[in-house]
Design a protein that fits this description.
With about 200 residues, the chain is an alpha+beta fold. The protein has one domain (about 1-10, about 20-140, about 150-190). Helix content is about 25%, strand content about 25%. It has helices at about 25-40, 50-70, 120, and strands at about 1-5, 95-100, 105-110, 115, 125-135, 155-160, 175-180, 185-190. Strand 3 and strand 4 form a beta hairpin. The longest helix is centred in the first third of the chain and has 24 residues, at about 50-70. The protein is globular, with a radius of gyration of 17 Å. The two termini are about 25 Å apart.
């Protein structure tokens, strides 16, 4: 965790058994959960559109942010978090998750096309976690049942932000792209919630 809160106090009980889990472990546990769950959503037509959103967004909060609550002793309300799959105008004054490539350069992926991202292109920028996916199938906008076998959650969707302004920026014209989950380390970023920046 990186604690950017104005007051760095613990305001929630801590579960000491969670100390053995890294932030990366917690994120990948969620990834494994949706990978196992997804085939069971197909027969009931809950694998895309609003049904998928209604399942995965609260599940992410419960499995990830609530785990951080008990791991770090920080009260984390749903409206004070960056919601799964959504992009924000600004990643400041709201709890969110960033990640760091294990090596550079690394391979970015967009629409099945690979491109290289090096240290120079990362200067002054940070990578924010958005979702797990495969860079091809966008479940929130719909998916025909016959295409579900191709869906996987092996990649991490990223928003690129400017380190100074905390606003979305780009790398080689891409404001969002994918990177393989095994190529990154995740980090929870705790923030003091700023309701003026993040009005509903």
């Amino acid at each position: 965790m990186i604690d950017n809160r104005l007051s760095k106090i613990k305001n929630h009980e801590v579960d000491d058994s969670l100390s053995e889990l890294t932030d990366t472990d917690i994120l990948l546990n969620f990834q494994q959960a949706i990978t196992s769950l997804y085939p069971h959503l197909i027969p009931i037509h809950a694998h895309a559109y609003d049904a998928w959103d209604d399942i995965v967004i609260p599940l992410f909060y419960e499995m990830v942010y609530k785990t951080f609550t008990y791991k770090y002793g920080i009260e984390i309300e749903p409206n004070e978090t960056h919601a799964y799959m959504f992009s924000l105008r600004r990643y400041e004054g709201i709890h969110h998750i960033e990640f760091f490539p294990k090596m550079a350069p690394f391979k970015g992926i967009l629409n099945k096309d690979y491109f290289e991202v090096n240290d120079e292109e990362l200067k002054g920028k940070r990578l924010v976690f958005k979702s797990f996916g495969d860079s091809v199938h966008y479940l929130t906008t719909g998916l025909d049942t016959e295409n579900t076998d191709a869906v996987n959650f092996e990649l991490v969707e990223v928003d690129v932000i400017c380190s100074q302004s905390n606003r979305v920026t780009d790398i080689d014209g891409c404001t969002t792209f994918f990177i393989h989950k095994d190529d990154v380390e995740f980090m929870f970023i705790a923030e003091t919630f700023n309701q003026h920046l993040h009005r509903e």
